[in-house]
Every structure is written in C-alpha cells, then in structure tokens.
C-alpha cells in the first residue's frame, strides 16, 4: 500500500513533469510544403509521427531543442549519434529527421 506522503510526492512529480515539458511545435501545412523540397513524398502524417517520436524518444533522456535552434548541418551531425543512443529504428530515425529538417526549413 502506498502511503499518503509517497502518493503526494508522485502526484507532485507528475504535475511537474507535465508543466516543465517543452511545448513541441506541431507540424503545419507550411512545414509539409517546405519539407517536400527535400522529401518529395512527405506527408502531414509523417511529420505528426515524427514530432511524437521526437518528444517520446529524445525527450525521455534530455531537454528537447526547438527545431530552428539547431542548423540543418548541425542536426545532420547530431542525429546519427542520437539514433544509436536512443536505439531508434531506421523508420523512427527517418520520421524524426523529416520532422526536424522540415520544421527548420519552414518560413
């Protein structure tokens, strides 16, 4: 049985984790259009899955960067290493990459 103190601590930690989580940029049609310059087959579904994976997989270990805080060249350097650390599948890696690069390319 969980004591009242432990329950209170768990509740506080849960609230803090939600409040302190960064707000991720939701993909827009402008992101899809910008991303199609690099990925002609890009869809809104891919970007939506990419942002979700970025939050879940990358955000579970460290604070998330806003896509435009990092240059596309720097993302290209960082992402392969993060793929290994986060144990991403090729598909997950591709979706996260498409999200970050498309969001970065949008005006």
Describe what you observe in this structure.
By secondary structure, the protein is mostly helical. The chain has one domain (23-105). The chain has helices at residues 4-19, 29-35, 44-58, 72-86, 90-105. It is globular, with a radius of gyration of 16 Å. The termini are far apart.
What is the count of distinct domains?
A: 1
Sequence of secondary-structure elements? HHHHH
Rg over C-alpha atoms, rounded to the nearest angstrom? 16 Å
Give the helix level as a range of percent: 55-70%
Mean pLDDT: 82
Spatial separation of the terminal alpha carbons: 53 Å
Question: What does the oligomeric state look like here?
Answer: single chain
Question: Major sheet, described briefly?
Answer: none
- In the predicted model, the low-confidence regions spanning at least 5 consecutive residues are 12-21
Main features:
107 residues; single chain; mainly alpha
Outline:
The chain has one domain (23-105).
Secondary structure elements and pairings:
Blueprint: H1 4-19, H2 29-35, H3 44-58, H4 72-86, H5 90-105
Helix pairs in contact: 2-5, 3-5, 4-5
